[in-house]
Amino acid sequence: MLPEFKFHHIGVAVKDIDSTAAIYVEGGYSRSSAVFDPEQNVTVCWLTRDGYPTVELIAPGDDRSPVSKTLEKVGVSPYHCCYTVDDIDAAVAKLRKQKYVALGKPVKAVALHGSRVCFLFNKNVGLIELVEAPAVIIE
What is the rounded CA–CA span in Å between residue 78 and residue 87? Predict the structure, then answer.
C-alpha cells in the first residue's frame, strides 16, 4: 500500500442489513439509512461511533451482486478495508506496480455522494477499496 492512504472504513458483507445493524446499534454505534447502489448492485448502510472504526454493511442487491459470492463462501464477514486517496487514478496505477489487480475501473458510489471508488486485490493483503477524497458518508 501507499503511505498517503488514510483508513476510511471496514466493509462487512451481510445478508440482512437491519439484523446486523441492530447488533451494532446495541453496542453504541449510530446507523445511517440504507441506500441502494445500482452501479455496485448492493445496499449499503453506515455505522459510526466516536473513537471506533466506521463500518459499512453491504448486502447484495440480488444473486449477481459481487457480495453474494462472499456470503456463499464465508457467510457474514468483514471482507475489505477502505482507504481514502486524493487521486484514485494515480493510486490505482501505483498499486498495479505493487502487484494489485484492479477488479474494475473507478466508479461513482451512491453512498459516498458520488465519490469514485475502486476495488483492488493483492494475494498477500486481500481485497481493499480506494475512495477518492472527499469521501462523505450519506447519513
Answer: 26
Q: Domain 6-132 is in which class?
A: alpha beta
Which triple of cell numbers denotes residue 100?
494489485
**Per-residue pLDDT tens for 21-49?**
999 999 999 999 999 999 889 999 999 99
- Answer whether 129's CB lies under 8 Å from 82's CB: yes
Q: Is the pTM value of this prediction over 0.85?
A: yes
The amino acid that residue 71 corresponds to is L
Q: Per residue in 82-98, pLDDT tens?
A: 999 999 999 999 999 99
Per the CB < 8 A criterion, the answer to whether 119 and 104 are in contact is yes
Peptide linkage before 134 cis (omega within 30 of 0): yes
Residue pair 118/130 in contact by the 8 Å Cβ criterion: yes
